Amino acid sequence: MPTKLRYFGICALALAAVTLSGCAPKQTEVIVKPLTEYTPKDEVALIEKLRKNKDPDKELHEVYRDLTVIDIHNHDAANPVAIENWRKVGIDRIVLFGSISEPSAKYTDQLAWEEYQKSPGNVYPSFAGFPIYEEEGLDIVRNNLEKGYLNIGEVAAASTFSESVSRLPWKAEHPNDGNFPKIYDLAAQYQVPILLHIDPPNGKPVAKLEESLDAHPDAILIFGHANAHNSPENIEPLLSKHPNLYIDFFAGFTAYSPSSINKLEDYVPLMEKYPDRFMLSTDSGFDLSRDQAAKGIYEMIDLLSPETALKVAYQNYEGLIERQPPTQTQIETIKKLSAKAGKFKTYELNKRMANEVIFELEGDVEK
């Protein structure tokens, strides 16, 4: 038989064998494809059911037990039982960090990451330990975002009223100061939100915030505890002009702080008008108890329409997380670890998923 015919005959037999056995050619490389779509669950019927069956003798967090709630502003990274404590009062997931805008924050940022590694289903790791005016700060931000942190902040972008924040060594004078413009560019590049402490919530700090929002339309800026010492009337113009601004609503402050001049009900019309732009937080119960901080969240949820309650309780923030693409560092790490573990496959992942795959693969490789 001529050589060429013999070659084609062997190929045909090999193809027939693969076809008959139902086997496809074995994948020999690791592929990572970005997944950045987010489709929220339709749980309006769930909210309606929970409200219909509401037991007046139960705490609201028990009534809404089946509703996911995210606290987007939590300083308890140094507390080893933080997740357990907050879950007792109905908080399912927390955006976790510790100190802010001072050297000690580098340490608590690492603690937040370690808690995330232990409980990725309950923690979104954030970081706040970087100087605003030094080049080192940009390197820290870039490296942490590449590593897999899902949030920036809380960052002291302006403070003259807060006794504690106004004294921080890495505090900025205003939200467009120092390296903030470059940090916003990085936030936009990685599609990661940045949580800003701004006080007072008016005057020059807010004017500079607006400059930043206009100059960086692709960056997602979250106005930290924007309702504290602030009215719905002051917040509405910001939301109407800046689609990249989100509001961290510290419900416990409005509900329980003696210094609050508003009630939760005052903010309902604004939340219903901008249902995609509000998120809830406890601020770790700053100047309140943990119970009050959590109760405020559930009291706010209970005042909203089912559609808005779902978005504010968790979907708005969850969407910001789920749309983040994996970083190049994550992709290369997955390829290396997956190949080492003998797993040659195609992954479709966002940034959060990539972190969890890395944690799993690291465990496999260590075995």
Automatic annotation (TrEMBL):
PROSITE patterns: PROKAR_LIPOPROTEIN. InterPro entries: Metal_Hydrolase (IPR032466). Keywords: Hydrolase, Signal. It comes from Fontibacillus phaseoli. It comes from the Bacteria. GO terms for molecular function: hydrolase activity. The lineage of its organism: Bacteria, Bacillati, Bacillota, Bacilli, Bacillales. This is Amidohydrolase family protein. Residues 1-26 form the signal peptide.
